[in-house]
Structures are given as structure tokens and as C-alpha cells.
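Support request, priority: normal
Reporter: lab tech (M.K.)
Component: structure prediction queue

Hi team, I submitted a job for Aquaporin-8 from Python bivittatus yesterday, and the status page still shows it as pending. I've pasted the exact input below so you can check whether something in the sequence is tripping the parser. The sequence length should be 256 residues. Please let me know if I need to resubmit or if it's stuck on your end.
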Amino acid sequence: MSDVEFGRMSMKEPELDGKRSPAQPHWYERYLQPCIGELVGSAFFIFIGCASVIENSEGTGRLQPALAHGLALGLTIAVLGNISGGHYNPAVSLGAWLVGGLNMMMVIPYWISQLCGGMIGAALAKVTTTWERYENATGAAFTAISADHQLPAAVVGEIVMTMFLVLAVCMGAINEKTKSPLAPFCIGFTVTVDILAGGAVSGACMNPARAFGPAVVANYWDYHWVYWVGPMGAGLLVGALIRFLIGDTRRRFFLK
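Reply from support: The job had stalled in the queue. We restarted it manually and it finished. Here are the results:
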């Protein structure tokens, strides 16, 4: 019997001697472990991001938070990405689902895991930084918007910057034609350049979980909705862009 024939047979056969076929992963690895990966990854990423903002509360510029967020995201995706895909962001999960990179039944569990991870990360940042700096930085919650006249620019900024991030994820890690082994660091660099470019516009959140965690821990909710509407709208737009125009033949709906 050839190796190919043996492989086909073993895929069809039920469990033997209590061992599961490699073609059928354990339910834990299919459903629960990815959610744990999103929880842990979100907690680490948001802890580093919040701590960098708090420690930078004296106003030395956007470089420190930009590098901390970008490097933390890239490293976390590189380490944990093979477990869950390394989203750590509800907008990214939305975009990944729309382009066929995430099972629909996992979308809400991913969102819950990411939001819980955001609260854990923000709480860890609170207990590991000095109270004075924490207060000065409002717990790393987003405070860039201080008046209603800033809202149009902030919403558009969040949409554009998050589109760049979700596009980097979907095209760098999901779309077959453009996938790259450097995707984790490309995604991290995208966050860095977005913060450097748009930090003064809206705070460059790009991630509802990153906004939600500090908002809960610091109890700061001013203009919080912007950090949901902008990123989630961007996820929808990127999904449409890939499905209709720039995705590979497996992702596109038309002109295959």
C-alpha cells in the first residue's frame, strides 16, 4: 500500500486505540484554544500599549507609544499567531471573517476574548505604573478628541488608519496571492506608522479592544463610540475591497 493510499484510509478511519486522526484536531484546539490565544495575546499587547502611553505621559512625543504598540503586536502575532490567527482586534476579526479567514461561529467568541484581554491588559498597566503618571495619562484611555468639531476628522482618521491595518492582516496573512512570512512584523509596522501619522488626529486607536479596556479601568468614556464606529466600519470596507476587487480568485466574488 502506498503512502498516499494509507493517508486516505487513515483520514476515513475512526479513532484507533483512543488516538485521534491528525486530520481531525481536538475540539479544544479548534474552538477553545484560539479564544485563549486571543485573550492572552490581547492582554499582553494592550498592557504594553497602555504602559507605554502612561510612561510617556510627560509628553516626549509619539515615537515611544508607536514603537511599543507596533513591536508588541508584531511579536505577539509571531509567537501566538498560529494558535488563533493573531487578531487581538475586533475590527481585524470582522475583516478576516468577511474574506473567509475566520469561521463565523468564532467571531463573537473572539470579540469577547479580545475585550476581556483588553481589560486585563489595562488593569495590569494600572497596577504596574505610578498613580501620578496613570492619572496624567487618564489610564491610557483615548483623550485626543476634546470637542465636537474634531469628530469628522477623528472618525475618518480611524477608518483610514484601521483600513490600512486590516488590509495588512488580510492581504499579508490570509490572501493566498500576497501572503508573506513577514506578515507579523508588517502588521506591527503598520500600527507604528499609523500612530506616528495619525496620533494627533484621533489617538490612532484602530482597535475597539484597545479603547475598551482602558475605558473600563479608568472609567473614561468621552467620545468612546468613535473607536468602535471607525474601526468596525473599516473592517467592513476592507472585506468589500478584497471580496470585490483585490482578493485572489479564491477570495473574489466576481471576475475570477
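Residues 1-18 have pLDDT under 50 and may be disordered. The chain is about 70% helix and 0% strand. Let us know if anything else looks off. Ticket resolved.
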